Amino acid sequence: MEFPYQQRHGRFLPIIPIKLKSVNGEWITFDAFVDSGASYSIFTAEIGEILGLNVEDGKKIYVTVGDGSLITIYLHELEVIIGEKTFNATVGFSKQLGIGFNIIGRKDIFERFKVCFNEKEKVVEFMDI
């Protein structure tokens, strides 16, 4: 599955659509930055609320972000869809995510797909492992 980079703030970035299943069974699509340096997929707490989650009921952990600071995230097990593939994944939600977009990290995603960034063609490819 290939996803073209999206233009944000004058730059092309590996941002792709991902569907998350809400508590009431509705699939909702969000955009997220594919980040091979991120251990976890992290979305804003507001998205957790849109999904019907009580965000702080999740497992509380701390992760280090790009500037070296720690943020609190709450982990939840959700059904997700990337491209045509549906699977369960651990997804974190945080009130402190301040980079302007959601993140798709390695846990449960990169373990399922070989992910290839093609900067020349400005596409990111997800291949089944």
UniProtKB/TrEMBL annotation:
Superkingdom of the source species: Archaea
Name recorded for this polypeptide: Peptidase A2 domain-containing protein
Organism: Archaeoglobus fulgidus DSM 8774
